[in-house]
Amino acid sequence: MRRSTVLSLVAAAALSTLAASAVIIARAPSTTIAHGARLFPSLQQTETSVAVIEIANHAGSFTLARQDGKWVMPAKGGFPVKPEQVRGLISGVASLETVEAKTRQPELFHRLDLDDVTADGAKSVEVTLKDDKGATLAQLLVGKLLATHGAAQPASDAAQMLYVRKPGDTQSWLASGSVTVPATAIEWLDRHIPDVKQGDVAQALFHSPDGKSFQLTREKPEDPGFKLSPIPTGMVAKSEYEVNGMAGLLDGLDFDDVAPAPATLPVPKSNFDYHLTKGGQVVVSLLPVDKDVFVSIQASGPGSEAFQAAKPWIYRLPAAKLAKMQTTIDQLVQPIPPKKPGS
Q: What is the pTM of this model?
């Protein structure tokens, strides 16, 4: 082979190698985040540096704020949020580490649930952490958890992996860590209202929607059951179970929504008044709010301390519990059955 031919082949091979390298370099992600690096290295893993958390998805957005050392939801009249969820979210975002660079093509973001929250059909959740001056400490789009394809669940939250992306950055990542972001406001609230057990009720007075009032009383303080009165002439209580159940309406209360109590409450549709065995009192009023019904809870005296914290808000209760609270005397009684011949 001629020397000139050999040199030509060597030159061609060198050019081919340079071209391939150029393609590889061109396709490499242009990102300042290294593999195995913290996504937010300056973010502390404690909540002390974070004062505001903004959460958004395609359905809307809401804000959590730290006020007087406690986390609350301003839009719900400053109702307390679950502190353990806040701590978990901040710690989770702070500890996220990159595992592998993923797509930079926006048309593929939907496969990882990493579209911008404003995009049609977006399933992402956007989290923004800010300090008390309003400066952004971290901002993140949270997408799918990595599919395990039938593998055993991770032994700990730290072993989980998920897809993430910084808003405005086309580089998506598979990251290790645990970031749990309840996407609706109600999921951040402690929905349980303090209990009044049936056994703590001495007497209950009901002012029902039909204007017919009735009461439940114990003949003796130690009696387990209640007597219904006044019972209309010719009628009798249908069931001791149903009557006693009316004394337990404040046992196991969870709300579906909460709002700040207005300065002046609307005229109630109905209310009931529990007098407690320890001497306290709890009054529950059913209030018309737009086309809905909320309840207010006013408490005073011994045994009612837990309920006194519920006063600044009004609550929307589950439909079944609300319907039970609107039970009338006519629903609790039935005609006295006729005596059988010879009895």
A: 0.80
